[in-house]
Amino acid sequence: MASVMAPSDWPAIGRLAASELPDAEALVAEAGWNQVAADWRMFLAFGTVYAVRAKGRVVATAATLPYGGRCAWISMVLVAADHRRKGLATRLLRRCIDDVLAAGLVPVLDATPAGRAVYRPLGFQDAWSFQRLAAPAPRADGSDIPAGIAIHHATDKNWPDLQAYDAAAFGADRGAIIARMCGRLRGVDLFATRHDRCVGMLLGRDGRVASHLGPLIAEDDETAKALLTHALRSLPGPVFIDLADAKIAVRQWLEGRGFAPQRPFTRMLYGRSTSFDDGQRTYAVIGPEFG
Length: 291
Description:
Elements: E1 13-15, H1 21-31, H2 37-46, E2 48-54, E3 57-67, E4 71-79, H3 88-102, E5 106-111, H4 113-119, E6 124-135, E7 150-153, H5 159-170, H6 175-180, E8 190-194, E9 197-205, E10 211-218, H7 221-232, E11 239-244, H8 248-255, E12 260-270, E13 282-284
Parallel strand pairs: 4-5, 10-11
Antiparallel strand pairs: 1-2, 2-3, 3-4, 5-12, 6-11, 6-12, 7-8, 8-9, 9-10, 10-13
């Protein structure tokens, strides 16, 4: 078993270059994660991606993504199998935390059970939990869009309003990320109206393993199910959705359409347990890498 490196042996932490995206994608593939190059490019465009290199290749990464002057997501903590247990992940994580705190923002992350055990001693506290649900071939029917709710495909003129709707529910402006998701998953740039008022939105993106639905923001369960019904009609599968544990009725509805639990996550904030988001309207997150 490899031991933790002495400080004198630590490799330098640098910034990931766009030319190194193939190395970053290789780390994702080795871990079995779902991100693609377009996801890494969002971090390069709007955040910071740190990288550790060995023998000319990137062997470890971590990323930060600031939102609206309030918080910053920490994610994409990846280490190549042959460089694990050397303290690289901890060093990268601490670098991210220090940077976010120095910027006057609250560090936030979404942790697996194994990650949660690491993050709690560092000062992160639990806020709420969600579950990744997966369906190899989801089923959809036409009976779940109730009268009074209209589902629309977003156009350029709708994006400013949808970005504002998302920010109100998320608790911080992440309009740049929302805009970059436009067109990532064909047919899943959706919003719902009732009496000409926006009452929900659903976006999606392509992935290495599966299509990913989220964020899903809605005023109630019926609106959330209506948006999902519309999206699932155009998705052959496989499909992921990271659904809040509090949304029991929608989870049961999804399970009836072929979804099953794959992995739990806990949203954690540094130094506080109160999240910025609106728990009533937040049904599904973009993903643990974006919040």
